[in-house]
Amino acid sequence: MKLPLAYKPLGFALGWVSGALSGMAFRKTWMAIRHEEDAPDALDRDRGWGEILLAAAVQGAIFAVVRSAVDRGGAKAIERSTGVWPTDEPGGRD
């Protein structure tokens, strides 16, 4: 069975979902941290280094956690439904 190739479209869809979920989670988290709608952008002249780097670190951490949770859930669902893990690589993705 050539499951890794068949998993690619599902992996793409899961990536899109994880991006959307992490964006929503970051906006809510930033609102809780700074009570602002928008996080600072690196090119925002009126924001300091600390605030910009804090926003980037929080956003990166949230993205990594959400992506890992969505990817793992998708892989487990594939394994439950087909009996095959969706990648041949022993360490996961290359």
Q: Based on Cα principal axes, name the global outline.
A: elongated
Order of helices and strands: HH
Low-pLDDT segments = none
**Number of strand segments:** 0
- Biggest sheet statistics: none
Structural class: mainly alpha
Radius of gyration: 17 Å
Individual helix count: 2
**Proportion of β residues?**
under 5%
Mean pLDDT: 87
Helix content: over 70%
Give the CA-CA distance, first to last residue. 20 Å
Question: Which terms summarize this structure?
Answer:
94 residues; mainly alpha; 70% helix
Give your account of this protein's structure:
This protein has helices spanning 3-34, 49-82. The protein has 94 residues and is mostly helical. The longest helix is centred in the last third of the chain and has 34 residues, at 49-82. It is elongated.
SSE topology sketch:
Elements lengths: L2 H32 L14 H34 L12
Helix pairs in contact: 1-2
Concise structural overview:
With 94 residues, this protein is mainly α.
